[in-house]
Design goal:
Elements lengths: L3 H4 L6 E4 L7 H7 L4 E6 L7 H14 L4 E4 L1 E3 L2 E2 L11 H10 L1 H20 L5 E2 L23 H17 L5 E5 L24 H12 L4 E4 L16 H11 L5 E3 L6 H4 L4 H11 L4 E3 L3 H10 L6 H8 L12 H4 L3 H11 L5
Parallel strand pairs: 1-2, 1-10, 2-3, 3-6, 7-8, 8-9
Antiparallel strand pairs: 4-5
Helix pairs in contact: 4-5, 5-6, 5-14, 6-7, 8-10
Length: 350
């Protein structure tokens, strides 16, 4: 077991999930573990706003400081729908940019603000967005989740999106570094391999570099192997995380792995092996989703010392403001919400 005295004053590196619409006894026990610092919610955890409010109240009563996150980008990756503003896939904003850049930047800011504002009603800290991968037409798992195929368009829209999130008190998370758009295999299922050299990755990395310069608070790594650079996937690679992301790009924020239960990480050994590689690489938080046995394996067997720097980086991601925890119906009375909602609705498929 880790030294609980060392870890009890900071958020641990494990982000787990829960199965249903409410916490069970095992969930509550695991949330108290000193290695746990985060929880990620999925569509299966949502029925309606009232249920989500109760679930979040129970989570906070169990562990007030824990980071609560959700994959919530728009389009096909929007975990909560009934009662929430429906968002277009980000490719739609890129298409708009080609004809009307100003309106596209405004729409991107609206989407970021809407996501953060509606999630903050429920005291949720993070949406893992925006996607900074390039839409090259190769990756089906990315596809319309990406803003555009041109780095500069992605940069402009993602900065506007991040600005919208920040104005509602939420930190943005750029993903999936160093870029998932050029590989065909789905890293949920297998480990994609990108044979390009580092110099050939410049376009993919450009949005991350630009967003970092603009103050990006957190990054999620890609489960992709770049054999010309390292023999480990980027998510588990000291070269990628510490030397290139933190060193060459100067990133000072929080680094998340992608889900350690995904096929792209499974080739790297047991859950403890994957967790140790990720921590040694320089990652701060390790989501482990849809595999409770893997979570328990890590919590039972991972032995690490406290990392105050990582704990501090994680703690600052707790959302800075809230809409007073008023219901979504009250948020919808705000002029800002009504204007953003109208612009977003105009982008939705008929």
């Amino acid at each position: 077991m880790p030294d609980q005295h060392l870890l009890q004053s900071q958020l641990g590196p494990v982000m787990l999930d829960v199965e249903g619409l409410q916490l069970d006894a095992e969930d509550k026990e695991l949330l108290q573990h000193p290695l746990v610092g985060g929880i990620i919610l999925f569509g299966r955890n949502y029925a309606d706003p009232d249920q989500l409010e109760k679930l979040m109240r129970d989570i906070r009563e169990c562990r007030q400081d824990i980071l609560v996150a959700v994959d919530y980008e728009g389009g096909r990756v929007q975990r909560f729908r009934d009662g929430f503003t429906l968002l277009p896939p980000m490719r739609r904003l890129g298409e708009l940019f080609d004809s009307d850049p100003g309106s596209a930047r405004q729409a991107a800011e609206d989407c970021g603000w809407m996501i953060a504002s509606e999630l903050r009603v429920f005291d949720i800290d993070l949406s893992f967005a925006p996607v900074l991968d390039l839409d090259t037409g190769k990756s089906g798992v990315i596809g319309d989740r990406a803003f555009h195929g041109k780095p500069q368009v992605v940069i402009e829209l993602a900065i506007a999106f991040m600005r919208g999130m920040a104005s509602a008190g939420m930190a943005a998370t750029g993903k999936h570094y160093p870029g998932h758009g050029q590989v065909v295999p789905d890293s949920h299922v297998e480990l994609p391999i990108d044979e390009r050299s580092y110099d050939e990755l410049v376009a993919d990395i450009a949005p991350f570099a630009a967003l970092i310069q603009a103050g990006l608070p957190s990054v999620m790594m890609a489960h992709i192997l770049y054999p010309a650079i390292d023999n480990l996937p980027a998510s588990l690679s000291h070269d990628w995380v510490t030397q290139r992301l933190r060193g060459e790009l100067g990133f000072k924020g929080t680094v998340f792995t992608d889900d350690l239960s995904m096929g792209g990480a499974a080739a790297m050994g047991s859950y403890v092996d994957r967790a140790m590689l990720a921590l040694q690489a320089g990652c701060d938080m390790l989501p482990v989703c849809n595999h409770r046995a893997g979570v328990i394996e890590i919590l039972d067997r991972l032995k690490i010392a406290a990392n105050p720097e990582a704990g501090q980086r994680l703690s600052v991601l707790r959302a800075k403001s809230t809409n007073g925890k008023a219901p979504l119906t009250d948020l919808a009375k705000l002029t800002r919400w009504q204007e953003a909602h109208a612009r977003i609705a105009s982008l939705m498929p008929a």
